[in-house]
């Protein structure tokens, strides 16, 4: 697929939407930090969010020097992963600050309260899908969509875990300190692990995307176990002790662990599953 096959208006609209969502997310999170925490954390978060924007600008300057509008080679696509990595680190730091210092002060009655926080967090997986579609060659559109959706689901998984903490702050149930801190910590770890599913893949010619076998052997189990096993245990505890309904995401965690285990066994050739090309 070539550049001419992209509708210019769709690309412009996509970037406009991406920029708007990023600004909205950054502004709301920054306002929450400034209003309910301190000026030092506020200034730090501003610098961090600006860092993401600077990384995107540098990326496009690098591409335009080669008269390109998107990353079309594997070595260039690594810069896209780097940008997403920078964003997710900034996002995670901000989330950690908010849930450690701010979230317990929020209510549903506030204009920028619990509901606004939840909606703002949900912008992150949308940004992931948009950025990958806009920054990487359209010939990889279909495999990219699949990869980004799985990564986005993991981010949503972490956000849903944080919703348990917000329900605790609202008084629906009383989590003990260890459970509360564990949920926040593992949700942040989940966010940080989200780029791993992307960088495990190599982008070849003609829109072909293949897994890097050696990289996948290391990063695959880290991503799958690091995201799903802690969440499975924590959800089981919250469901059993506090009667919080979590069956859908528990099923998601179990399925992810089983699929990850099967993939690992196939890579190690412990089992055979279909014909190898």
Can you offer a commentary on this structure?
The chain is mainly alpha-helical. The protein has one domain. It is 75% helix and 2% strand. It is built from ten helices and two strands; from the N terminus they run ααααααααββαα. It has a two-stranded antiparallel ribbon. Strand 1 and strand 2 form a beta hairpin. Helix 1 runs parallel beside helix 3 and helix 3 runs antiparallel to helix 7. The longest helix has 30 residues. The mean pLDDT is 86. InterPro entries: CECR6, CECR6/TMEM121. Belongs to the TMEM121 family. It holds the Pfam family CECR6_TMEM121.
Can you summarize the main beta sheet?
2 strands, antiparallel
What is the succession of H and E elements?
A: HHHHHHHHEEHH
Helix content: over 70%
> Assembly state here?
single chain
* Low-confidence sequence ranges: none
Question: Order of strands side by side in the largest beta sheet?
Answer: 1-2
What is the rounded distance between the termini? 25 Å
**Structure classification:** mainly alpha
Query: What is the strand tally?
Result: 2
Radius of gyration: 20 Å
How would you describe this structure in keywords?
10 helices; about 280 residues
Brief synopsis:
The protein is an all-alpha fold and 277 residues long. It contains 10 helices and 2 strands, in the order ααααααααββαα.
